[in-house]
């Protein structure tokens, strides 16, 4: 009988051991919290759950964040309110109520040591704060002075993120600072030089925020904060959109000031944003690549609100309305030269590391009214309009690359085309894909010719699909692009879709950060893959689904 009691007792101890060790491990982690640089005290230590959610006492929310908190013991529901935002979190529930809308959660309210504990990241981000987690120091930094621009993003589980928010504002170097080489990251297991992030300025998506309109100091602080967080996550280069909509984020003699700076196109912002951004990047040892939308004139089909010197007003004969946007017609030589001139203005005037084009050539799957241009500017008597369009883009790429390298040979010139050049069904040498659109057939971008002719220094195809997406699998496309650049001297950077991670509209494989990490690991197979560029910055440093920044930091630096 005593033997049986001993066995039962031992089993109880063994069953409880995982719980005790987990609790002991959580208690041993000393987590500190600060808001805008000021430390926040807690009466019960924060802890991290098994699902990697950081929990804090509700007092942190009420005292530290200035929110109203009401706890209903009967329903075990915490109601948190600040401004127009009202959150309701109920113990045991897998969802929260945010302004009457249901939002899924990994972890809701918990009761620990008699205290109500809530998920810090979820609550903070719903209240308009940014949350940055430093894994090395177990430190959480909350920021209230950075507004998130662009469309709303899906709420995601609270997962720590890596950053170094305490980096002081650097001394901005003079414009004559030498162009740095791409910094290598000690111990990087990939050995890849390029670790880039796209920074979208159109619609104020990544920078500057709409709340910073006309406020130069705020815009500078926002940019510095973004760079600090990207660098902490392991990035060494930014590709910043400096010509988002036929306008400029620099004082141009050709095109108007961008409206993203002040809310009004043509309005001077009080400083030179491009000069500041280049200096800010270089002071951190990061490369700065100036990203241009080549043939997009506007983001809608209206001319109201455009500055008097916008291309759509100065040269309406160059403009084609398509896909509810205004495009500059690539078939008109003077129009192509206008775009080249705007790029060269930046090349000559700024210490940039590269010129970067996206895939705004001809719009795909829409009618593009260029019959007159085809007849007027077809001196080579090219038989088909498709071949003529491709020749227009070929001339543009060749001429732009030649002009850049004639002025500054060290400035790299590259293009980020649509990820599928051609499907194998249309061309036996194309990729093993069945994509509905291809760069060659729909955007008239013959990237193969650019590579083989050496007109570009690199290509960064937008391979924005998963490793299991049958129509355009990531691995098959990387294989194809590797074969295209092999032996050419043209570098290959792969464009990755960080914007899809955690988006509830995406399929299951995007509901964790593993898809991006596995894609980066796949790139390690090939010496021809010289790095990666992720689209886009805010999805890493602000939205940070499933702790993507932490995962990237671990991958890049470990």
UniProtKB/TrEMBL annotation:
Biased composition (Pro residues): 167-183
Organism domain of life: Bacteria
Stretch forming the signal peptide: 1-26
The keyword DNA-binding belongs to this UniProt entry's keyword annotation: no
Keyword Signal appears in the UniProt entry: yes
Residue span, Copper amine oxidase-like N-terminal domain: 35-140
Keywords of the record: Signal
Pfam families linked to this entry: Cu_amine_oxidN1, GHL10
Occurrences of domain Glycosyl hydrolase-like (ranges): 194-511
Region (Disordered): 153-188
Gene3D superfamilies in UniProt: Copper amine oxidase-like, N-terminal domain, Glycosidases
Biased composition (Low complexity): 153-166
InterPro entries to which the protein is assigned, alphabetical: Cu_amine_oxidase-like_N, Divisome_Glycosyl_Hydrolase, GH, GHL10, Mao_N_sf
Protein name stated in the entry: Glycosyl hydrolase-like 10 domain-containing protein
Organism of derivation: Paenibacillus borealis
Species classification: Bacteria, Bacillati, Bacillota, Bacilli, Bacillales
